[in-house]
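At this stage, I put together one protein's amino acid sequence and its C-alpha cells, which the following lines show:
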Amino acid sequence: MKKKHNWSILIGAAFLMASSAIGPGFLTQTAVFTEQLGASFAFVILLSIILDAIAQLNIWRIIAVADQPAQDIANKVFPGAGYFLSFLVFLGGLAFNIGNIAGAGLGLNVLFGISIAQGAMISAIIAIGIFVYKEAGKAMDAFAKTMGLLKIGLALYIAYVSDPPIAEALVKSVNPTQFSFSAVLTIVGGTVGGYITFSGAHRLLDARQTGIDNLPAVNKGALSAIGLASVMRLLLFIAALGVVSTGAKLNPENPAASVFQLASGQFGYKVFGLVIWAAGISSVVGSAYTSISFIKSFHPTILKLNPAITIVFILISFLIFILIGKPVKILLAVGAINGLILPIALGVMLIAAYRSKIIATYKQPLWLTISGLAVVITMIWMGYGTIIQLFKDY
C-alpha cells in the first residue's frame, strides 16, 4: 500500500536542513569570499549548488530507502565506519554549535544592547525549550520554517538596498576571473557537509517518512532544502557584492555585520542582529538534533535519554563559548572541515546503495551514482588543493 506523504513534515525537514546550513558561519563565509573574489564568487556559488544537490539527493534517498540512520548504514558497509562517521559528525556539530551560540548571542547584543554572553544564555534557553516541549518534532518543524522565511525576507531587503551589479555577477557566474579551492570546499562544507545534510534526512526517519514509495517526496524535500539555502546564499552574495563594489571595506572582526550596516546604516545593523540571531538559534536546534541522532541508535539508554543528552549538548556548547569567546575564524575553518567530511560520508552512502542487505530491491539510478562519485572526487581534489595552499601560506 502506498504511503501517504506528510508534506508538513517534508517541508519541515527541508527547512531544518536549510536552517542548519544558514548559520552564523554561513553569513561570515559568504561575506568573506565575496570580498575576496568579487563577482567571480557567483561561479563558486553555482558550482556549489550543483555539488550540494547531487550529494543531498544521494544521501537522503539512500537513508530513506534503507530506513536507518546514516551511522547504522555505515556500520553495515564497513564494521566500525558508523562509529567513525558519528565521531566526525558529532565533533563537527559541537564545533559549529559553539559558533551558533556565539552568533545568537551577538544577535541579541545588537538588538537589545545586552552582553553577548547574556544573549547566548537566553538563546540556549530558547533552544532547550524547543526540545523540552512535549511536541518537540512539530515545534522544531514550525520553528525552522519561521526562522528560514524570516532570514530570507530580511536578506532580500538588504540585497535590494545595496544596489548590486547583477549583470556583472551573471557574466562571472559562467566566466570567472578568480577561483578559490578553499571557497568551494568551505561553501559546500557549510551547506551539506558534516551534520548538515543529515539533519533533514534523520528528521524524515523520526517522522517515518521513508521507503521507496516516498522517494518522489524525498527528492522534493532534498532539492527544496538546497533551494532554500541557495536562495539565501545568493541574496547575501549580491548584498555583499553591492557593498564591496563601491570600494567599501568590510570589518574583518565581523564582515557579515559590515554588509548590513554599510548597505542600510543603523537600521541595517539592527536587521543584521535579527538575521544572525535567527541563523544562530535555528542552527543550534539543527546541530544539536542531528549530532545526537548520530549516537542515539548505539545504545537503548542513549535513545531513552535523547532529550536530556540534547540539552547537555547545547549547554556544553554554551559553556565552551563562554570560556573561549566568539570564534569568528573557527566558523570559516569548520566549514572547510565539514567539506572534508562530506566525501567520506557520501562515499560510504554510495557503496551502501549497492548492498542488498541494506537497500533490499532498490536500484539506485546510474546517473546519481556517477554524479555522486564525481562529487566525492571533486571534494577530495578541492580538499587537497586547500591543504597544499595552507602549507604554502604557512
In short: The chain is about 80% helix and 0% strand. The two ends are 60 Å apart (CA to CA).
